[in-house]
Amino acid sequence: MYTISNRLKIASIVLMVLGAIGIGIGFVSMPGTVAEAKAMVASHDDGHGGGHEVAAEHHEEANDHGVATEAHGESHDASHDEHLLHQLQNRPWAALYVAAFFFFMISLGVLAFYAIQRAAQAGWSPLLFRVMEGITSYLVPGGIIIFIILALSVAHMNHLFVWMDADVVANDKLLQGKSGFLNGPFFLIRAAIFLGGWIFYREYSRKLSLAQDAATDDTNFVKNFRLSAGFLVFYLVTESMMSWDWIMSVDPHWFSTLFGWYIFASMFVSGITVIALVTIYLKSKGHLQDVNNSHIHDLAKFMFGISIFWTYLWFSQFMLIWYSNIPEEVTYFITRIADFKLPFFGMVAMNFLFPLLILMNSDFKRVNWFVVMAGIVILAGHYLDIFNAIMPSTVGDQWYIGIPEIGAVLFFAGLFIFWVFRALSKAPLQPTRNPFIEESKHFHY
Amino acid sequence: MASKVIHALYTDDDVLMHAVKKVKEAKHHIEEVYCPFPVHGLDKAMGLAPTRIAITAFIYGCIGLAVATVMMNFIMIEDWPQDIGGKPSFSYLENMPAFVPIMFELTVFFAAHLMVITFYMRSKLWPFKEAENPDKRTTDDHFLMEIEIHDNEDELWQLLAESGAVEINILEK
């Protein structure tokens, strides 16, 4: 049995406290109500002008861009100021949402990987099932937090989703046309169905997995196999719709058909990376005795392959839109390249070039610190990926990776570590009666 | 130059693996092992050096990428930068997304084909090459180990007979 070490517990609580302070600072320093809008914006601009010469300059320039690419034709000052205020008000919310989704998607990616390993009856991975089940335990708190943020958005606590604003929809034919799908109640019902289905599979599969250890036959295993195959069908549909709802709809004028797969690739590779990191950590602490470097090699191969798969989808989406250059869809990338140049192209280097060159060598994939290093860069890269998906349409050119963003990441990292390792300590780390466990113990590549 | 070799035939890859380990332990140099199919772990047991063909493939891939980049840059940007459907042909980077499919395919093309040709050259394989199998049965269901004899005929015979060989032949080469 694994027990969570005190140092890890304290570290995760410190992360949560620091993160909560950061999130709090973000919300406190957020500009006030719409009534004081103009005054707030003016003082904000003054502050910039006085304090940071360069920042103010960038600010002006960026604002011009915002106007130029804005399809709504808001050119006069009042509506522009309001737009700016909304962007500034969105920042702590978007920072919270990006971090919450990022850690949630890690456990969801692990859940998909876990279901695939079960449905494919993989012989190498049963040793890691408990690690995966530990990581997917975060689905419950992570999913609840996401659902609360979405519910608060529907309750007009923030402006993350433009289509939730009745005034905006009233003046927007495109959004009116989509309101059959994009409306508050249906949005929340869908979210509840997605989360309910995922959490149900996770909890039931975990139960069967533990029951299999105590059983005298393989019925639990067979049940779990069928359940996993069924879940994968459900997951494929719901994951796609989830990405339209939770990510793509922050930019409701834009659509892309391969978006669901693109978000899937991002969560899949992050999930596999976290499995590798947690496995390496547990092994370094003397648990998981039977995990050898061939298991790590296999996980690193998946990290490498899915990183390239992510790049394939990223590039396919980008290149098709860049090539045809149709105004209504290309604005998506124009705003990103204009205002998010470094994060937008930086993430391609972090998610593609770095793992490509580091993890190509077969020997490097067996070396723990190489895998850890590549893993950290991949995770940071996929945080940026979600950042690039949410921020341009919520905070626009007012983005910055500062206290609210880092605070939110620290908070959810702390919560994630705390919850995952607590779940890991609840059951033996090695399944005993899995039919493939002997093969997995002697797995050698 | 006339030298004598000993051929030991086996009918099972497990027996062969044990025999190879035994011969290696007795410090005899195994000239060659002929198998009808790949025997997992045989190269390790024989102590063969790992292949470097993956490294050559990486280098060939880099060459392919360079060829594609230089070619597209010369043709599309330097030689005749005309406006085709509004694509920005002012610099390579501006028009790069359109070149990526070619860059990718040429990288794979060079890496794959040159690696295969390297494999053929290093393993001396080509059409009309005379087959080198010492015994027809090694292509079907027999394994054959060849060891050169240096005045230790009886000792080797003894060793191989004990190792489970179904047939042992000594012949001039």
UniProtKB/TrEMBL annotation, chain A:
User: Which keywords has UniProt assigned to this entry?
Assistant: Membrane, Transmembrane, Transmembrane helix
Domain of life, per lineage? Bacteria
Q: Any transmembrane segments, and where? A: 12-30, 94-116, 137-161, 181-201, 229-247, 259-282, 302-322, 342-360, 367-387, 399-421
Protein name in UniProt: Quinol:cytochrome c oxidoreductase quinone-binding subunit 2
From TrEMBL, chain B:
Q: Which residues cross the membrane?
A: 53-76, 96-120
Q: Which UniProt keywords apply?
A: Membrane, Transmembrane, Transmembrane helix
A Pfam family that the UniProt record links to this protein: ActD
Q: Which InterPro entries does the protein's record reference? A: ActD
Q: What is the name of this protein?
A: Quinol:cytochrome c oxidoreductase membrane protein
- Which organism encodes this protein? Cellulophaga algicola (strain DSM 14237 / IC166 / ACAM 630)
Q: What is the lineage of its organism?
A: Bacteria, Pseudomonadati, Bacteroidota, Flavobacteriia, Flavobacteriales
